[in-house]
Amino acid sequence: VSTQSTGSFKLYTLSTTKQSNLRCHCSSNRSLLHVELWIMGEPKTKRRKISEDKEQNCILEDLEKAFEVKFNDDVFHIWQWLTSHHASQPLSFLKKLIDLQLCGPFQYLLDKDKSDKRWSVLDLHMMDREWQCPPEFQPIARHNNTLYALWRDTPCSKPVFVVRKESDSGVITPVATDLFHLIRLLSDGTALPSTLEQLINRSAAAETIKQAETKRRKSVVAKTFNKIGIVVPVDKKTELGYRPLTMTYSELDSMLRRTCKTDDEEEKDRILAPFDECINYIQVSANFHQVK
């Protein structure tokens, strides 16, 4: 037992266990005023942080197991904020506020515990995809009929940024470093709730979208018709990776455009004849590495 005098009061601290202390405020005549039980151990804020980290790991692991790809923390933090502040309809809030309809992983989190929902692997991999969506493109939201997605260059890597796909041309453009940046971008002056503003400010990315785009551009090995390019590094040990085609980008583009403009099958075969050489090289390379 330890005591501490404070004016006409004395503070008695009784160590009962390693986990708790019983603190009694008594007057000089020993009459008990009140008793406090102090839990000795981690501060409440730290205990709350540990609990939040466990929840985050649980949700991200669930998503990664379901979709077979990795996710950044922004998905968890936005989901946590929505379910904390708008638990009854978490995906409706941003739709009403800035016409941003979250989809894909968020729809999965919303529906996964419903008894009538049974997701197959194909369902999850194709979730909210459209025509002209490449494998690297994972739909995450819609805004004004435009589809936004997380972009990964490989299935085992986390998203490098958020992209937008033009519905007509299929052109894919990087627009935001993460989902926080996307919400700020699409709010377009609309006042966001103060707690959401604080979350966005606290989670600001270390680099801008221009920096992220410039950094990735150094790894792009070939142009693509959707303009974003592909990142396929050559594995030095296996020698597997991207190899340039035997024709230029403009030659391939012209060939495919001419093919689309004709309905004559013989004419199509004639136009595509030079491409047979490319296909032969691809087959020879694939067979070579299978043998190795």
Characterization of the model:
This protein is an alpha+beta fold. Strand 6 (137-143) and strand 7 (146-151) form a beta hairpin. It has helices at 44-67, 73-85, 93-98, 105-111, 121-125, 179-187, 194-202, 209-217, 249-260, 265-272, 275-291, and strands at 2-6, 9-15, 20-27, 32-39, 100-102, 137-143, 146-151, 161-165, 172-176. Helix 9 packs antiparallel against helix 10. The protein is built from eleven helices and nine strands. The chain is elongated and about 60 Å long.
Biggest β-sheet, characterized? 5 strands, antiparallel
**Overall 3D geometry?**
elongated
Bin the strand percentage: 15-25%
Along the chain, the helix and strand elements come as EEEEHHHEHHEEEEHHHHHH
Please tally the β strands and state the result: 9
What strand order characterises the main sheet? 5-6-7-8-9
Report how far apart the termini are.
Answer: 76 Å
Calculate Rg over CA atoms: 29 Å
Secondary structure category? alpha+beta
Parts with pLDDT < 50 across at least 5 consecutive residues: 6-42
* Average predicted local confidence, pLDDT: 82
Please give the share of residues in helix.
40-55%
Count helical runs: 11
Keywords:
four-stranded antiparallel sheet, alpha+beta, 292 residues, five-stranded antiparallel sheet
